[in-house]
Amino acid sequence: MIFALNGQQRSGYSKMLSVEKSTRRPTRGASLIEAAFAVPVILMFSIGIVQAGLMMLAHHSITDLAQIGVRYAMVRSGDTETPATASAIQDFVRNKAKGLDPNSLVITPSWLPDNKQGSSIQVTVEYQYPVAIPFVSKRNLQLRSTARRVIAR
Predict the structure, then answer these.
(1) Going along 38-119, which residue ranges are E strands?
(2) The model's pTM
(3) Phi, psi of 82 (to 5 degrees)
């Protein structure tokens, strides 16, 4: 069926389409509103992933520092010319700390039972890791690692 309107011919189907278009609700700007809700969630998730990776890096670093401190002390028993003291181990470990705040490190060496060959040396490294996620309360997580070895000489 064809209708003539002011000299133009229109089929019944195209007339129905033009009526249908005029009754639909406008959807302009809907994707902008959806993006306004989705983008902050995606950003927070992404920042959380980055922070978790940085925290794992810090934990790996303090584990490595504990191992370094034990290796330093296990070859410097009280029987050697330059025995390892608690302050010497702490200074050595602090100088090896890269990417961490050396003032936030707590290094605790202990000898079981004493600083002689055949005894054990244990070094514990603690670090206050600052969690920095926007819109979440700032707080520190305590990371700790302990290493133990037998004093070799």
Answers:
(1) 105-112
(2) 0.74
(3) -120, 80
Spatial distance between the Cα atoms of 91 and 127, rounded to a whole number of angstroms:
15
Q: Provide the 10 A C-beta neighbour count for residue 83.
A: 13
List, as own/partner pairs, every contact residues 90-96 make where C-beta atoms lie below 8 angstroms and the sequence separation is at least 24, other chains included. Answer: 92/68, 93/65, 93/66, 93/68, 93/69, 93/123, 93/125, 96/65, 96/68
- The separation between the first and the last C-alpha atoms of the chain, rounded to the nearest angstrom, is 105
Amino acid identity, position 81: E
What's the rounded Cα separation, in Å, for the pair 19 and 149? 84
pLDDT (tens digit, 9 = 90+) per residue, 86-99? 999 999 999 999 99
Q: What is the CA radius of gyration of the chain?
A: 34
